[in-house]
């Protein structure tokens, strides 16, 4: 039987490490699909409608409960889309707000389901469900693209999603988690694997952009036409997309198979550190059936709001003068990740910093290694020129952000100052992006 890392001591009488380390005894764990004696048990079976609504509304924390107040915007957004399609700003605004409670319910139901599964598998499943909003938005944008008009928005949304997780979400986790504490310590396994994968992902996303930027200067030494350059860049993007998906599969194997016991130890330790664990154990929870019902309902609402929102993006960009970069880099990622950010901030506040890191780094890795390549491959199948040739300005933001966050993660602890600095960097990026114009290179190719 595994020993609680928070209680274990070495034979020499020295205090055991404050963070769990992998050992042979700890590797002997339950191998069933469902957990036994966990905080995810509801004590009920089937569906109880009134209790189901009460649990969903109350959610897991005060922030999530406040978000549930926005549910009236969901039917209002649907009604406006069909009744007054000419009011583009109203339809966009209402659906923009409606995505938040729908995504919040999806995140809550995913979290409830995750608590009934093995810890690492549950966290990865929760991250995947939270990324459904992003995937739906990407797919709808690609489908509605006409002659490449929405490709810049998709590309900006890909990088914006990563930046929102790395700077905004992680920064707020560090800030709120460190307000009442001198610092918060996290396990090096999560930070090292996460920052390493992000560097690889940033490198992969940067290569097509660097290739195009290096050869688009019309140098006399380079004998290539703009059309050939665009075609070769697109082929490199598609090849890179396939390779990044392979990297994502390796990431899953690493987490779920070869090193799953290490992550189990880390997350079990974090679960024991939860400062409101007693309240969490007493909180009413969803049954397994209710989890699936909540996921289905929230997915339907999220998909409808995403479709209606995307249909209005072109009108907002053209009629209201909002730039493609600001729309994709700031507006879209903030709303699609709102629910996940609330979950991560609540975990950091409760001193579950390793869980919070999983919810910040995990979605960033999934966006870079799965969602972005998936958008490229789906665009390829639909005959759309969706590539990974981002603007140099945007790719520079990504690489610098990865380096900044990696530097903060290096010492294995966080403070509120580091979190505040990350958020301020994100605000600077938002202000700059608002004034950043759309650039077209020779031949009409998006720079």
Characterization of the model:
- The protein is mainly alpha-helical and 447 residues long.
- The chain has one domain (49-435): A middle domain of Talin 1 (Up-down Bundle).
- It is built from 17 helices and two strands.
- Strands 1-2 form a two-stranded antiparallel sheet.
- α6 runs antiparallel to α7 (151-178) and α6 (132-144) runs parallel beside α15 (353-381).
- It is globular.
- The model is unreliable at 1-38 and 441-447 (pLDDT under 50).
Instruction: Going across the biggest sheet, name each strand in turn.
Output: 1-2
For the record, give the distance between the C-alpha atoms at the N and C termini, rounded to a whole number.
Answer: 58 Å
CATH class: Mainly Alpha
Q: State the domain count.
A: 1
Structural class: mainly alpha
Instruction: Please identify which CATH superfamily we are dealing with.
Output: NCX, central ion-binding region
Mean pLDDT: 77
CATH names the topology as A middle domain of Talin 1
Radius of gyration: 22 Å
CATH architecture: Up-down Bundle
Segments where pLDDT lies below 50 for 5+ residues?
1-38, 441-447
Query: Approximately what portion of the residues adopt beta-strand conformation?
Result: under 5%
Choose one word for the global shape.
globular
Question: What is the number of helical segments per DSSP (H or I, 4+ residues)?
Answer: 17
Share of helix among residues? Answer: 55-70%
